[in-house]
């Protein structure tokens, strides 16, 4: 078909967590501009399997921009050359015939490489386990109108809750800081009445766990906000700072 | 209730708060500094400037604040080193293709380099003016700071070094000013654009004012 592309890919290959990896060069031909970036990788993997080579391990799940699995650092940008999308939402029409594309895993001490492009993001789960929840008794959900919430608070909470925990903020941050993620998780609950009971311990414990995991420190460059597929705002980091300072003053 | 919550100032956010507060404190010093320096523009042979310098060198309140200033500066520098070392450790394997300027400004990513340049400049700057003034004060005689200005800025290489220092300061402030407010948790849909605009103009004006002084002195425009 006309408009199809031939591309050179440089992909990070690493056998396992302990092995030293390196960038390997591959060629793919006749790539449709309508393919997603992951579908292009499927083509490449088919090619490798047919040749009897080990396919490239990469994370993916929903392929519709909501699961946050497709962690690829493409040509120096998390999730590739577009803002506010995941890798599965990146289409090959964003590239030109003959392009060389460098694909690396997320780079952070807290996100160790498992194999090739897959990294271990369980550090995020451990942060969530320290307070990214509310404790409620089970039973029938009460009527929503019993809990009046200002529309602006509900909206801000909802925007923070859009975080899919993909780790693009960490990957793109020059300091590998997880503060956009943690601040979104603290904000979504701090803004709602249901989040008040554990508000103080949440801010203190989630930040402490974030520090323990070895993420870096935010220097407010704002790169995370630009690369976040869900457009999580830096306002959340300021809110997290307030939550944390107030929590430390109170307790 | 928690086993993980450590001491406040050992936490990432505690350290960031200290960076922001000391940074803003140093900004307040810049305003005083540039105001005193601007006295040279009375163009009265340094009479007004020397009077202001005399006040700054002998007023007991200023003496106490000066100690606070050095403590604040030291805290800012030490904390920056600690944070930078942690940040480097947080990414042991670097990217083959580094992030460009698409998602962030170069100077926001270069605060450490700009700060280091500033610190080097500061050492020379203190040796040029602060040390001779202190020597005079301790010896008990009046120091002609204005004459010192003329002497230092007669040399082109000092003027060049001061331009590098002042430019580093400008870019350091361009990111640092608004960044400090964000760190303090002051982010607001209505006020953050104002803070950013004040920070932008403050950085530019203070850079131009400081830069103008060595240049006008060097060109002999200030008698």
Provide a descriptive summary of the structure in words.
The complex is a heterodimer of chains A (251) and B (223). Chain A has 251 residues and is an alpha+beta fold. Chain A has helices spanning 37-51, 122-129, 151-161, 168-172, 179-190, 199-212, 223-227, 235-250; strands at 5-13, 22-31, 73-74, 77-78, 100-104, 113-115, 118-119. Chain A folds into two domains: 5-114, Beta-grasp domain (Ubiquitin-like (UB roll), Roll); 121-250, Alpha-helical ferredoxin (Fumarate Reductase Iron-sulfur Protein, Chain B, domain 2, Orthogonal Bundle), CATH 1.10.1060. Chain A has eight helices and seven strands. In chain A, the strands form two sheets. Chain A has a five-stranded mixed sheet with strand order 2-1-5-3-4. In chain A, strands 6-7 form a two-stranded antiparallel ribbon. In chain A, strand 6 and strand 7 (118-119) form a beta hairpin. In chain A, helix 3 packs antiparallel against helix 5 (179-190), helix 5 runs antiparallel to helix 6 (199-212) and helix 5 packs across helix 8. Chain A starts with a strand and ends with a helix. Chain B has one domain (12-91, 106-218): Fumarate reductase/succinate dehydrogenase, transmembrane subunit (3 helical TM bundles of succinate and fumarate reductases, Up-down Bundle). The chains are: A alpha+beta (251), B mainly alpha (223). At the A-B interface, helix 6, helix 7 and helix 8 of A face helix 1, helix 3 and helix 7 of B.
């Amino acid at each position: 078909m006309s408009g199809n592309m031939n591309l050179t890919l440089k992909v990070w290959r690493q056998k396992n967590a302990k092995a030293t990896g390196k960038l390997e060069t591959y060629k793919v031909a006749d790539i449709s501009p309508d393919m997603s970036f992951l579908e292009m990788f499927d083509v490449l993997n088919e090619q490798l399997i047919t040749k009897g080579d080990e396919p490239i391990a990469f994370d993916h799940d929903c392929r519709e921009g909501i699961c946050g699995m497709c962690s690829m650092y493409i040509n120096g940008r998390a999730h590739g050359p577009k803002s506010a999308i995941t890798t599965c939402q990146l289409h090959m029409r964003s590239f030109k015939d003959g392009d060389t594309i460098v694909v690396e895993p997320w780079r952070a001490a807290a996100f160790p490489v498992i194999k090739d492009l897959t990294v271990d993001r369980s550090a995020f789960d451990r942060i969530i386990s320290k307070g990214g929840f509310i404790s409620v008794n089970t039973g029938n959900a009460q009527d929503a109108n019993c809990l009046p919430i200002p529309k602006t608070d509900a909206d801000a909470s909802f925007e923070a809750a859009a975080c899919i925990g993909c780790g693009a903020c960490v990957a793109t941050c020059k300091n590998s800081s997880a503060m956009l993620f943690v601040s979104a998780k603290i904000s979504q609950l701090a803004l709602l009445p249901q989040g008040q009971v554990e508000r103080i311990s949440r801010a203190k414990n989630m930040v402490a766990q974030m520090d323990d995991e070895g993420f870096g420190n935010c220097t407010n460059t704002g790169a995370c906000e630009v690369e976040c597929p869900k457009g999580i705002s830096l306002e959340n980091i300021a809110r997290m700072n307030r939550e944390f300072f107030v929590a430390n003053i109170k307790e | 209730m928690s086993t993980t919550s450590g001491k406040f100032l050992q936490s990432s956010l505690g350290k960031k708060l200290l960076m922001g507060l000391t940074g803003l404190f140093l900004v307040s010093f810049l305003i005083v500094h540039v105001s005193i320096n601007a006295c040279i523009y009375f163009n009265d042979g340094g009479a007004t400037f020397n009077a202001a310098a005399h006040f700054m060198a002998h007023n007991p309140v200023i003496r106490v604040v000066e100690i606070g200033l050095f403590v604040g500066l030291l805290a800012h520098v030490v904390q920056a080193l600690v944070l930078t070392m942690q940040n480097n450790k947080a990414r042991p394997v670097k990217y083959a293709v580094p992030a460009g300027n698409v998602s962030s400004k170069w100077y926001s990513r270069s605060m450490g380099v700009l700060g280091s340049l500033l610190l080097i400049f500061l050492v020379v700057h203190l040796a040029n003016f602060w040390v001779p003034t202190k020597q005079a004060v301790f010896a008990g005689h009046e120091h002609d700071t204005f004459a010192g200005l003329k002497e230092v800025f007669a040399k082109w290489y000092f003027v060049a070094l001061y331009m590098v220092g002042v430019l580093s300061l400008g870019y350091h402030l361009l990111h640092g000013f608004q960044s400090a407010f964000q760190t303090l948790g002051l982010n607001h849909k209505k006020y953050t654009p104002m803070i950013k605009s004040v920070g932008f103009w403050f950085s530019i004006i203070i850079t131009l004012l400081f830069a103008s002084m060595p240049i006008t002195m060097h060109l002999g425009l200030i008698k």
